Amino acid sequence: MSAVAAEWIKLRTLRSTWWALGVGVLVSLTLTVLGASTVIARWDPARTSDQAAMGIVVAVYVGVILAQLPLGMLGTMTISAKYASKMIDTTLLATPSRARVLMAKATVLSGAAVAASLLITVPGYLYGRFVAAEFHPSPLPAGAWTVITGGTLMIVVSTLLGLALGTILRNGAAATAALVAILVVLPFVARMLPCGEHINRVLPAYPALQLIEQVPDIMPSWPAFAVLTGWAVIPLLIAIAGGRARHRS
Q: In the predicted model, what is the mean pLDDT of the chain?
């Protein structure tokens, strides 16, 4: 618990934390408001209250997904800056276990990512209900929870993937480039390949977009959640194993 508290103090005292969170939340919330206004204005007047409620949730979580890169970059900066400044040595003197340090950082960053998603979704949802008031949107329908969970998981995964890449590569620029390649470039390239659908099944972007109903389903929801979770867990395990290997050598 002391390691988590220490990482929280470090995270909230860094100027880059507030820049990354501020940019991610502000840009995503702005685009959410603009997007919701545009989409809702085009709705069929016959849309039911449940359809209206679902449409609002989907519009809001499209905005949440847009915050993945700023939050992912926050993950890379949190650890790569320590390697660049050699402060990682001080951290490991206080907490010799590399795995414990990384898990503490992951816990704090996950909390920051969830907080960021709430700062986007709560105002966005309230605004969406206001704009769509004539449709009398119902409370959240059952299907909305898949969208909510999928969108929130994606922003957490992006943040933790940034942390893992920063730990593995130990360079902020290289980690950020790898993050952009995984989240943006590879899914785009895969779409142009004959076997692109199979490649996109194992990349994080398509399952996330499927869960928030932005692309056709290519897998059931639970495998999509499993793929997303794997992109947070497996890179972190590789980072821990790599750290132990370097320590032994």
A: 87
pTM above 0.85, yes or no: yes
Instruction: Give the C-alpha separation, 202 to 16, whole Å.
Output: 31
The answer to whether 202 and 128 have CB atoms below 8 angstroms apart is no
> Count of domains in the chain?
1
DSSP state string for 104-143: HHHHHHHHHHHHHHHHHHHHHHHHHHHHTGGG-PPSPPTT
CA distance 33 to 243: 43
58 within some domain: yes
Per DSSP, the three-state class of 62 is helix
Which pLDDT tens digit goes with each residue over 154-186? 999 999 999 999 989 888 889 999 999 999 999
Alpha helices in 48-97 (DSSP H): 49-65, 68-85, 87-94
Asked if the structure places residue 121 within a domain, the reply is: yes
Measured at the CA of 103, the angle between CA 6 and CA 12, to 5 degrees, comes to 35
Contact 78, 166 (CB under 8 A): yes
Q: Where in the sequence is the domain holding 92, given as residue range(s)?
A: 2-242
Residue 175: which H helix or E strand, with range? helix 172-180
Q: What CA–CA distance (Å, rounded) separates 82 from 161?
A: 17
Residue type, 171: N
Quick one: average pLDDT of 198-227? 91
In whole angstroms, give the CA distance from residue 241 to residue 66.
31
